[in-house]
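look at this:
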Amino acid sequence: MPDLSFFSFLASPIFVVLWYIIGLIAAIWVVQDEYLKNTQVQPALKWAWPIIVVFFSVIGLALYLWTCRPPGIENKTGKQEKQAHHEYVSSTFRKVTGSVIHCVGGDGLGIITAMVVARLIGMNFWQEYWFEYVVGFAFGWFIFQYKAMRKMADSPMQALWMGGRAEFFSMITVMSGMGVVMGYVTPLTVGEQPHPATFAFWGFAALGLLMGFIVTYPMNYWLVKIGWKHGMS
């Protein structure tokens, strides 16, 4: 079996506490920034970014600053702010990144919620995997995707359809990335699926979501390319 001892730092109390403290402080700043300065961020992304930043910590904050916050946006208002934001996020890279943030923020919140419940009641790996899939899909579809698609659809039912088809393909890839961490990396590093009351649980949860982010990126590129998702623009 491969030696995955490198990942043991994810179970370290010092690392996990610092990671999430930084993530929480950064997420609070992002919320303030979205509502007071960088106000043209899409409503659904205003929810997704803080979730991502909590779990991704410094990586999430760097992504926000790099892909969603135009330089000097705090000095612009009204039409100038709107135009600056639109121009900044209109590149394919930033559109796709916004699509992935939206996807992983919604799905991830559901997945981690389901993971906590599954570990507390003692589900086996595959029971937990599909439970997380269903809950993550529901969070992503009915909360995040529907909220985004409702602005572009002619009716609530059309918004549900448009959100559901995008969520189906996104969720497959997110859970593929999560599954690698849950079923392979975690047990080979700490020997078992960690309980929610442990530091290892939260360390590997962050890694799982990050892996889901990476794996779903090509899928979201395709979804943006064909017009099923619209990223940050």
User: Anything to note?
Assistant: Residues 5-225 form one domain.
